[in-house]
């Protein structure tokens, strides 16, 4: 459905022009390029801005701890941004499927609008709410805002979903540029809050999203500031100062070479259309980056859409292997190895650096995500779902589609996946992508005194130096782990 439809409701055409329109915010916590909000403002009706924290949403896929921390800051930033344009953010808590129709009725709303989400449970919830609200005689409209191309719009000639990224990307590019982003409304005419909402709208504090005892979020606070303003700054800074060289440097965790926009995109502080158009404008405006850097960056942004479209086509991929022969994989269940991986104590510096960066900042560089995921699923032969769950709990950008699709991709059981037999060697990867060991030194400081020649292989260091460093020996032999993984894979029927 094009963003421009349905046409704004004209108050003059309706019997009760003061009946409010409700904007239901979800993964789109911004004012600019927010079609639902723009539609509400254009309707001329008073607006009620609503966020519903639904801890049970997606049950097994509920927000992890780091994402909850982010959401707290994101809601506070959105509330302040809305106040600046004259509106109020009402924050409720409960089962959205029952609560939203109730709030609509209590407000005597003429219409409710939202931007679409595409995950299986989100879609189901939205469909049910739309039906319930419409049955009560209230209009409900949804808009495209969270992806460059909605999942059903990029299809093969026979109308099927693409399973190969390069083909999907070619087809997506052939559709032309995504729509230009909408400006933020200068004013949002706030409707007075309905009296009956007081009970349900508990406010942000009551959601208890931030950890208190213990407060483990110090590293997150030091690394990030959630909200639209900071996201726009990050985007602006990246396209003007960081995009040049992205194509070559994006795999280097020791350099600040990527945008770090993933949590902003996850919570919708910026839209992918804004990212796209700002990057294109910077390059075409002669800001230093070339078409190659731009093309690479846009195609990474494309992966985000591709993951959404795969999960849309096959919701069962949330927990099921795309390649079903992997159902018989003899995954290991070893609590000690898992804990060592989670805590960054595997004895492989690049793996440990990545896992500690994740724990401290809620984010990990993409190349290192691939290395640690490969290490878990291959060298340690552990189920990708165990790793996916840990990422879900610890990433500030944890996103159901990107997380599941990437984990399956690395584990070799996914769509268009790297073949299982292609096992990342964490030492070779580290030597190639962290050549001076700067990334390892930052996140595994006990290794900082080691010479670069053995920073990625501390067990090869001069024993006199090694003895001074308190760092674990490798928990698995690389060759042995690789051989065990390949034997398990060969044992699968059809592999
Ligand atoms: C095992 C594994 C799990 C992952 N889980 C998540 C997740 O839960 N949430 C998440 O947003 N990303 C996930 N990714 C993808 C990727 O690692 C991050 O999006 C990226 O590291 C974010 O850094 P950036 O914003 O600096 O990326 P940039 O290189 O600046 O890329 C720009 C944007 O493109 C998108 N993007 C880039 N690479 C990918 C990719 N491989 N898949 C999907 N989108 C991509 C992101 O939205 C990113 O912000 C995962 C990757 C792996 C290997």
Automatic annotation (TrEMBL):
Its cofactor is FAD; (6R)-5,10-methylene-5,6,7,8-tetrahydrofolate. This is Deoxyribodipyrimidine photo-lyase. Signal peptide: none annotated. The record marks 331, 384, 407 as: Electron transfer via tryptophanyl radical. It catalyses: cyclobutadipyrimidine (in DNA) = 2 pyrimidine residues (in DNA). Its EC number is 4.1.99.3. Coiled coil: none annotated. It comes from the Bacteria. Binds 1 FAD per subunit. Residues 19-148 form the Photolyase/cryptochrome alpha/beta domain. PROSITE patterns: DNA_PHOTOLYASES_1_1, DNA_PHOTOLYASES_1_2, PHR_CRY_ALPHA_BETA. GO terms for biological process: photoreactive repair; response to light stimulus. One of its GO terms (molecular function) is DNA binding. FAD binds at residues 246, 258-262, 297, 397-399. Pfam families: DNA_photolyase (PF00875), FAD_binding_7 (PF03441). Belongs to the DNA photolyase family. Keywords: Chromophore, FAD, Flavoprotein, Lyase. PANTHER family: CRYPTOCHROME (PTHR11455), CRYPTOCHROME CIRCADIAN CLOCK 5 ISOFORM X1 (PTHR11455:SF9).
């Amino acid at each position: 459905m094009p963003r421009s439809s349905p046409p704004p409701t004209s108050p003059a055409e309706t019997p009760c022009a003061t009946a409010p329109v409700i904007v239901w915010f979800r993964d789109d916590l911004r004012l600019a390029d927010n079609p639902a909000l723009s539609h509400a403002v254009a309707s001329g009706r008073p607006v009620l801005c609503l966020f519903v924290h639904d801890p049970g949403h997606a049950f097994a896929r509920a927000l992890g701890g780091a994402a909850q921390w982010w959401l707290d800051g994101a809601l506070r930033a959105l509330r302040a941004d809305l106040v600046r344009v004259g509106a109020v953010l009402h924050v409720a808590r409960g089962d959205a499927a029952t609560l939203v129709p109730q709030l609509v009725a209590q407000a005597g709303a003429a219409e409710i609008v939202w931007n679409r989400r595409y995950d299986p449970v989100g879609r189901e919830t939205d469909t049910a709410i739309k039906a319930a609200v419409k049955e009560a005689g209230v209009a409900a409209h949804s808009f495209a805002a969270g992806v460059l191309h909605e999942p059903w719009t990029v299809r093969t000639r026979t109308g099927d979903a693409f399973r190969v990224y390069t083909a999907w990307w070619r087809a997506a590019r052939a559709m032309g540029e995504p729509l230009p982003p909408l400006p933020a409304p200068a004013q949002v005419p706030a409707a007075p809050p309905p009296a009956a909402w007081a009970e349900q709208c508990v406010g942000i504090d009551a959601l208890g999203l931030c950890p208190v005892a213990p407060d483990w979020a110090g590293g997150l606070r030091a690394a990030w500031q959630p909200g639209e303003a900071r996201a726009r700054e990050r985007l602006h800074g990246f396209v003007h100062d960081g995009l040049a060289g992205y194509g070559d440097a994006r795999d280097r965790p020791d350099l600040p070479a990527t945008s770090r926009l993933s949590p902003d995109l996850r919570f919708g502080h910026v839209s992918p259309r804004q990212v796209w158009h700002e990057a294109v404008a910077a390059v075409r405006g002669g800001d230093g980056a070339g078409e190659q850097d731009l093309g690479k960056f846009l195609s990474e942004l494309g992966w985000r859409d591709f993951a959404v479209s795969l999960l849309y086509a096959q919701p069962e991929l949330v927990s099921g292997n795309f390649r079903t022969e992997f159902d018989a994989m003899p995954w290991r269940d070893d609590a000690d190895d898992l804990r060592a991986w989670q805590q960054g104590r595997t004895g492989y510096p690049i793996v440990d650096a990545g896992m500690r960066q994740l724990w401290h900042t809620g984010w990990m560089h993409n190349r290192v995500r691939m290395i640690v995921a490969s290490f878990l699923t291959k060298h340690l032969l552990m189920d990708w779902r165990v790793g996916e769950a840990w990422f879900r709990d610890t990433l500030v950008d944890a996103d159901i589609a990107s997380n599941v699709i990437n984990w399956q991709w690395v584990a070799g059981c996914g769509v268009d996946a790297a073949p299982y037999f292609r096992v990342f060697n964490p030492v070779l990867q580290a030597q190639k992508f962290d050549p001076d060991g700067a990334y390892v030194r930052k996140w595994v400081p006990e290794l900082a005194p080691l010479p670069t020649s053995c920073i990625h292989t501390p067990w090869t260091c001069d024993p006199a130096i090694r003895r001074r460093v308190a760092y674990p020996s490798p928990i698995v032999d690389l060759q042995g782990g690789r051989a065990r993984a390949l034997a398990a894979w060969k044992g699968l029927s059809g592999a």
